[in-house]
Amino acid sequence: MTNNLDLNKFNSFINAASETIACGPECQEQKKADELKNKYIMSEANLALAEPEYQIARQNYYTYVSGQSGYDDMLEKDYTQEADIISKKFKELYNDEIAKIKTQLDTYNSLLVNFRNVADLYTQYKKENIQLFQELKNQTNDILTNERKTYYEDQEINSLNGYYLYIFWIIYIIVLISFAVFSLIYPSQTSLTIRALLLCVFILLPFVSTWILGKIIQLIYFLFSFVPKNVYK
Question: In whole angstroms, what is the distance from residue 154 CA to residue 152 CA?
């Protein structure tokens, strides 16, 4: 009997070795994958049947031990615990949502206050810009009016200066002619040469008077530069 068992084990070992030799590495991997897949399918089937079997076994036990009322009390207790858990989770979610809503409301209120401040500031700047534009426009109009007024006044002054110059020239020429006539007609202690020289000076004076006056003013400023201006000079 022992010899037969040993012979069977030996034959099984030979068969396994033969199969291992006949099936290469890829074949062995495929066989291992198929084996694991079968185990996975069987486990999934057992899992699907486990819950109903568990419920039936529990019902049978509690019904046998405590009767139908005991089983119903046990179910009510389980359902109450589940309801408490669900209610607790719901409250937590509710409180979280309330906190989020409050945070969002606070943020919205802050943004609303900032928006109103910006809107008020924009309105204020807009009014100030309109006022400044109106003031600038008025000042520009005043400047243009003053410039036109000054221009017309300058024209009038230039016109009057022209009239005055014309009148002064006439008066000066009359005086000059009178001086020449009186110098020649009436006798004088001054020689004719000096009178003729004075006449030439009076004739040239209007043309060189501006230059002479400039030189005199320049000389006065030059002399004034030597006068002490402060205690250090």
Answer: 5
Rounded Cα distance between 112 and 206, Å, is 83
H helical segments located in the chain: 2-22, 25-185, 192-224
Asked if 176 and 202 touch (Cβ cutoff 8 Å), the reply is yes
Instruction: Kindly state the tokens that stand for 34.
Output: 């198929």
Residues whose CB is less than 8 angstroms from the CB of residue 52 and which lie 6 or more positions away in sequence, other chains included: none
Running DSSP on this structure, what letter comes out for residue 191? -
Q: Which two tokens stand for residue 114?
A: 């900032």
* Tokens found for residue 12: 């099984």
| Tokens matching residue 131 | 């006022």
pLDDT (tens digit per residue) in 115-129? 889 988 898 988 888
Integer angstrom CA distances of residue 191 from 16, 55, 179, 188, 198: 169, 162, 14, 7, 11
Record the pTM: 0.33
Query: What are the structure tokens assigned to 197, written together?
Result: 């020289």
Q: How far is CA 81 from CA 85, 127, 202, in A?
A: 6, 68, 135
| CA–centroid distance for 109 within its chain | 22
Residue 1 is given by DSSP the state -
Which residue bears the tokens 């020429």? 173
Which pLDDT tens digit goes with each residue over 96-107? 888 889 888 888
Identify the band that residue 81 occupies on the pLDDT scale cut at 50, 70 and 90.
Answer: confident
Non-local CB neighbours of 137 within 8 Å, separated by 6+ positions: none
